[in-house]
Amino acid sequence: MAFSLSTLSPTTSILLSFIGIFAISLAAFWASVEAETVSVNVTAGGINYELEVYDASIAEELKIKSHDFPSDFIFGACTSAAQIEGSANESGRGQSIWDNLLAKSKAPAARKFPIAIDSYKRYKEDVKHVKDLGVKYYRFSISWGRILPMRRMKLAH
User: Fold this and answer.
1) Quick one: which of 31, 23, 26 has its CA closest to 105?
2) 111 and 32 Cβ atoms separated by less than 8 Å
3) pTM, two decimal places
4) 29-74: per-residue pLDDT in tens?
């Protein structure tokens, strides 16, 4: 059975886009933890970016252009706290699953995890970059260690 994004509602298209982007991001992040990365230059929105990818063959996939998608396709971007947040020991943040997992890892990229790209301090810059790219939809996450530093919540009775 053939499948076309153009037959989906805008809400479904957005949801599928975010799920796909998250899955790719998570796979790329996990692979980068386990292996060395390769730098690739990509131009988007007239700005040249250097991306670190786990395999040079991904560079070919990055050559896809927006006109390759249906005209009603909605583009967005997303990030996860584990990939970008940084400032792991600031503002009372508690430990996360990622902190525990990567502390045991011998992968070189695991050493970068506590700092990441420090979006915790540079979020205004990050939002500006997303805006400069022309992205209308941006989803991000916040580490549960910041929301529930002690990993539990007291309920009032």
Assistant:
1) 31
2) no
3) 0.51
4) 555 555 567 777 777 667 777 777 767 676 666 667 778 888 888 8
